[in-house]
Amino acid sequence: MSTKIINFTKMRNYMFGLSLLLIIGGIVGMITLGGFNLSIDFSAGLSQRVQIAEESFSLTVAGDDDVSFDVDGDDVILTLRNTEGVFTTTLTAESYPTIGDLVAGLQGVYGVEAAVIGSASTPVETIVTGLSLPYELGTTAVYVNTANLDEAEFIAIDTVRDALASMGIAQVQVVGDDYSQEFQIRAETESEGVKNELEADIAALLRETFGENSVVIKGSDYVGPKFSAALSTSSIMLVIVALILIAVYIWIRFKLAYALSALAALTHDILIMLGFIAILQLEVSTTTIAAVLTIIGYSLNDTIVVFDRIRENIKGMKDTALDGIINTSITQSLSRTLITSLTTLLAVIPLFIFATGAIKLFALNLIVGIIVGTYSSIFIASPVLLTLMKRIKTKEAEHLGIVAEAEAVEAAPATKLTVVKEDAVIPQADRKLKGKRKTKK
């Protein structure tokens, strides 16, 4: 049963134009939007994740015993440490579903005093956890917060920006669902060792606006200017070195034309991915670099499969034109390429749907990279190879033609040429003789 050969190379000019349009669009979008949205990894300063949450209940304990309050999932854990040992009490969400129930359950355990501040009917599942957990309880009240579920009380991102305006911080982003009221705040700096100062300033401004006990620090990362600059340089060099080594490998395994074609396809994939990231203002972090390197490997694998088939078919289809060989090779490996891409997407898409944070962004970058990598291995790498090989064939033909012509002139035998003048007269006797000979015959 014969397989219909798809003429992919016929569409190469259209695909080159489409790719060029996407790349230019990405560059224009990046310039228009002010560049990449660099994470704290590449932009020196403090990146802090905070949640604005209302006070729900307070905890105190009298005595010399050490009592701590912690949250594990939806369960609350009280731990007592004294000279007799360590004792733990767990209050599950099933047994204590509301804040009112939980406060009643905490009363008296290890000498704990608890008091409801907000609504007693608030679900225990809404308790907000942060870097301060576990809380060490004492005579000074410790406040536990719960997420705000009232849409009318949701805090707008502009309100957070206004609260931090005196610090010149404009990079504030909403994290997760609206009801969680989580915000990512980034404060850039060119000074070393100012982490504690930045954290204190941000916390003070937020508490002044939203309440002394209504700000929960969920995460805090600081990167100094020297480390940030070194990390940026190392990441760029890592990608460049990877591309060079890949080109050398393909050059050794195939030929130079194959290496240049693969390098063009990989550069194409990287540029389109970066354009996509810039236009959507996705955060560029070390996870993004990992995604780019992963896509380079994935796209290269697809390209090499097609190139290997092209090399085999060149040997076995000597009477077929080069574009026909390339079309045949792509068609033969098309099912393998598409199946590999689809199965990979089936593994990555759930990560994008169900994951959060850096993993979600990593999965999104992979999805785009897989699609672009599959496209480039079919419509970019092989057509570029066809263009390069045609030019090589043309130059070889021109060279061989000049050599062959020179060799033909040198090898031509010396021959005597008889020149007959137009005014030469043949004698009459000869004419008559020739006529008699013809008659005798």
Characterization of the model:
This protein is of the alpha+beta class and 441 residues long. It folds into 2 domains: 9-40 and 227-390, Multidrug efflux transporter AcrB transmembrane domain (Multidrug efflux transporter AcrB transmembrane fold, Up-down Bundle); 46-223, no CATH class. Helix content is 54%, strand content 17%. The protein has 11 helices and 13 strands. A hairpin with a 2-residue loop joins strand 5 and strand 6 (85-91). The longest helix is centred in the last third of the chain and has 33 residues, at 322-354. The protein is elongated and about 100 Å long.
Produce a short descriptive summary.
The chain is α+β, with helices and mostly antiparallel strands. Helices cover 54% and strands 17% of the residues.
SS field, number of helical segments: 11
* Overall 3D form: elongated
Structural class: alpha+beta
Trace the largest sheet across and list its strands.
Answer: 10-11-2-12
The oligomeric status of these chains comes to single chain
Q: What is the domain tally? A: 2
CATH superfamily of the largest domain, called what?
Multidrug efflux transporter AcrB transmembrane domain
CATH architecture heading of the largest domain: Up-down Bundle
Strand content: 15-25%
Highest-level CATH class of the largest domain: Mainly Alpha
**CA-CA gap between termini:** 69 Å
Q: What's the mean pLDDT score? A: 82
Radius of gyration from CA coordinates: 38 Å
> How is the CATH topology of the largest domain named?
Multidrug efflux transporter AcrB transmembrane fold
Q: How much helix is in the residues?
A: 40-55%
What is the H/E string? Answer: HEEEEEEHEEEHEEHEHHEHHHHH
Instruction: Compute the number of strand runs.
Output: 13
Low-confidence stretches: 407-441
